[in-house]
Amino acid sequence: MATRAAAGEVTVGADGRLHAAALKAVAEPDTLKALRDRCQKMTPRLDIGDLITEVMGWYPGFVDAYTHVSSGGARMDDLPVTLAAVLTAQALNLSWTSVTSPDVPALTRSRISHVYQNYVRAENHAAANRWLIDGQAGLATASCWGGGLVAAVDGTRFVVPVRSLHARPNPKYFGRRKGATYLNLINDQGAGTAGMVVSGTPRDSLNAVDLLYRRDGGRQPQVLISDTGSYSDMVFGLLKLLGVQYRPELADLPDQKLWRINPSADYGMLDSAARGRIDLTRVRQHWPDILRLVASVHSGAVSACDAMRMLQHGGNPTQLGQAFAHFGRIFKTLHVLAYVDTESYRRAIKRMRNLQEGRHGLGKYVFHGRRGELREPYHAGMEDQLGALGLVINCITLWNTVYLDAILDQLRADGFPVLDADVARLSPYMYAHINVHGHYTFRAPDLRGGRRPLRDPDALAED
């Protein structure tokens, strides 16, 4: 790295601060634009309720995951229809009135209320979500996006206009009111694998590790990507010992200090950048306690959030916390060097951050009722409703990927140019074809060919 800095490929300021050239957007080739346009035109259009019902039909275990609160006894008739209505109302943030139909026994208000009170729980959402994650992982198009070993964590902010102990103020996100954050973990195939509600807007790093250990399904990630707000030296050390590479995006790169072990080493132009010193003596002194704490987190005896809090007292790290931080700075420094030195490394992080933003955009489109405000006063209610939102987003993601698979197969058969590089840049979060407004129906589709017929883009008139 120092050799590349001397050659002028990396910039080091007079004050010892590193500077990396801003990433330039990769221009979209005409083949990608044509492919994306053709896919959007061929995608069938449908209501959100029908989409959920269709996905339920693909995976019977999805509905079976919703057991009665008292037991796993006999199932009521037409439970999938009522369950789809409940998930629709919860995910779209609507009242039951929007999804009720007095003439349909499965959609009466009393039936919907009964299913909501007795079948809808966060643990059932998680069990159902496992089917969606596994289904997404087995699709050819999803494999073009990644192998499920890279994860990203970020939070979606919600204003909570009702009185609640689980809402906190933050003028930047909530104005004069209070709010909560729904932290969600996604993999590089676009599937949401875990989620949790936290009060206000805490630093994501305090909860990111817990999300890795409360996944609903999917492969154990080997890389965790987050925004700058999740950065923490101690988290670097904890994740390293848990076998996960931590790669936060570095928005304020010049403020990142490099750390060295050998104070007499000569790093050339990087000497001034390596202003911090890692104290290995302190790490060795506390190494047995460090390993015990990591083992406790890995085994589930203590949550990572609680462990991080125990390592700090009054905002200052304890002696064990300082040892953890010194260990983590080794890998923080390696991360900063790779971030500056390797453009592909930065682009991989940016790609996951963009994927997460795409999911947030889909979430806002779906969660549109009541001005997008979360009006549940209790934590359990927040977990249930936002768990339903995450589940419905995964239904959309899976449905989109299934039909993208079918569309791409059809295009290849027709001789349309389909390049793997273009497929890798398609998004599983498109939603222009999904209706989320109006009074909703929950019809089981007639899938004689296994799926809905694709639209003909050449004969398609503008709607």
Structural descriptors:
globular; two-stranded antiparallel ribbon; 14 strands; 6-stranded mixed sheet; 463 residues
Explain this structure to me?
- With 463 residues, this protein is of the alpha/beta class.
- The chain has a domain at 2-6 and 45-230 and 342-435.
- Helix content is 46%, strand content 12%.
- It contains 18 helices and 14 strands.
- It has helices at 2-6, 30-42, 48-58, 60-64, 79-92, 109-119, 122-137, 140-145, 171-174, 205-213, 233-241, 280-285, 287-299, 304-310, 319-341, 343-366, 379-413, 420-423, and strands at 11-12, 18-19, 46-47, 150-160, 168-169, 178-187, 192-199, 223-226, 245-248, 259-260, 276-277, 312-313, 316-317, 434-435.
- Strands 4, 5, 6, 7, 8 and 9 form a six-stranded mixed sheet that branches.
- The longest helix is centred in the last third of the chain and has 35 residues, at 379-413.
- The radius of gyration is 24 Å and the shape is globular.
- The mean pLDDT is 90.
- InterPro entries: Tn3_Tnp_DDE_dom (IPR002513).
- This is Tn3 transposase DDE domain-containing protein.
- Residues 50-440 form the Tn3 transposase DDE domain.
List the helices and strands and how they pair.
Elements: H1 2-6, E1 11-12, E2 18-19, H2 30-42, E3 46-47, H3 48-58, H4 60-64, H5 79-92, H6 109-119, H7 122-137, H8 140-145, E4 150-160, E5 168-169, H9 171-174, E6 178-187, E7 192-199, H10 205-213, E8 223-226, H11 233-241, E9 245-248, E10 259-260, E11 276-277, H12 280-285, H13 287-299, H14 304-310, E12 312-313, E13 316-317, H15 319-341, H16 343-366, H17 379-413, H18 420-423, E14 434-435
Parallel strand pairs: 3-14, 4-8, 8-9, 10-11
Antiparallel strand pairs: 1-2, 4-6, 5-6, 6-7, 12-13
Helix pairs in contact: 3-5, 3-17, 5-6, 5-17, 7-17, 10-14, 11-15
